[in-house]
Amino acid sequence: MIEILLNSEEPAVRLKAAVDVLGQDPYGLVTMLQREQMKASPRVQRLLSERDADGRIPYHPYSKWRGAHWVLVCLAELGYPSGDESLLPLRDQVFGWLLGKDHERHIETVNGRVRRCASQEGNALYAALVLGLADSRVEELVQRLISWQWPDGGWNCDRRPEAAKSSFMETLIPARGLAWHGKFTGSGESIKASRRAAGVFLRRNLFRRQSDGSVIEEDFTRLHHPCYWHYDILFALKVLAEAGFIVDRRCDEALDLLESKRLADDGWPAEGKYYHVARQGKDGPTPARHISSGSSLVDWGPTGKRRMNEFVTADALYVLKAAGRLPQPVELPPSYEG
Questions:
Q1: Is 211 exposed, middle or buried (0-12, 13-18, 19+ CB in 10 A)?
Q2: When you count CB atoms within 10 A of the terminal residue's CB, does the N or C end of the chain come out lower?
Q3: How far apart are CA 21 and CA 322, in angstroms?
Q4: Structural domains of the chain, count
Q5: Span 4-23, pLDDT tens digits
Q6: How many CB atoms lie under 10 A from the CB of residue 132?
Q7: Helix ranges (DSSP H) in 131-167
Q8: Distant-in-sequence, close-in-space partners of 7: CB < 8 Å, separation ≥ 6
């Protein structure tokens, strides 16, 4: 399966297999070449195809899944080359939205807890750091996230006064963004906040209620790509691996469940998806009012319980390697030419 991924038509999949699974130097000659090749890949070209002459995408940044916010998140997930200045207009769109006065008016505090969809700030933080687009505004996002963190370690946008527990969806992505900020800057404050957030999932074995051990949501146990702002066990395991918590024994049940989903060909399926593929108009970007929510210019591969999805497979192998569940050492196949 690793050899199949290394020979994928998708540069991002080849990169994930080489770096995340085989441990190749992420900044070595071969991997840097693969990152550069990614700029010309059909998926990347489609993701960026709706930019105007100013380099911006003419929708609200959060327009699902074609706004600047989601395009940057997808590029970061793919491993797109860091420091591409042509992406700065998209970054400025996102920061302008999240740090603008209108957005601030939607930040409410109820019963001493800030009610925010913190996955928005978390994804923006993650994408800016990974894509080499960070500036001083990143620190503002970090401080907001830390100041909004709930006593149990997470975040929630539930405005009901009785809501007192964090949301899985609104906690996983801020945990990821803060973990990456800690890696890049050495910030102890960010690392501590990420560790507290990880506890929200670890205390529940990533998908079970603390009260009775039942499954919180069946969809949490199904595999998807991309997850966008949604939650599933593979996405959670990936974030916990990035943050260094994958060796916690409370991940074991989710890892067992992930391993049980391996197909006969040694790949993993995308059991569901959160998008539908939209057609791009011949005359330029579709007016925002005509875009259905959840439309994507990109097809992210096969969906179904019996068909291997390369992106899901690459992430599953990364997680299992980080957890020490792959045969060691994993080596480059003899046929690999880079």
A1: exposed
A2: C
A3: 9
A4: 1
A5: 999 999 999 999 999 999 99
A6: 15
A7: 136-148
A8: 14, 335
Burial class (CB in 10 A: 0-12, 13-18, 19+), 52: exposed
Q: What distances in angstroms separate CA 51 from CA 6, 243, 257, one per listed residue?
A: 31, 33, 41
Tens digit of each residue's pLDDT (9 = 90 or more) over 49-81:
999 999 999 999 999 999 999 999 999 999 999
Mean pLDDT over each residue of the chain, to the nearest integer:
93
CB 56 within 8 A of CB 93: yes
Residue numbers of the chain with a pLDDT score lower than 50: 283, 285, 289
Domain range for 205: 2-322
On whether the CB atoms of residues 267 and 2 are closer than 8 A, the answer is no
Would 13 be classed as within a structural domain? Answer: yes
Residue 328 lies in a domain: no
Distances 317 to 34, 77, 143, 170, 330 between C-alpha atoms, Å: 19, 15, 34, 25, 11
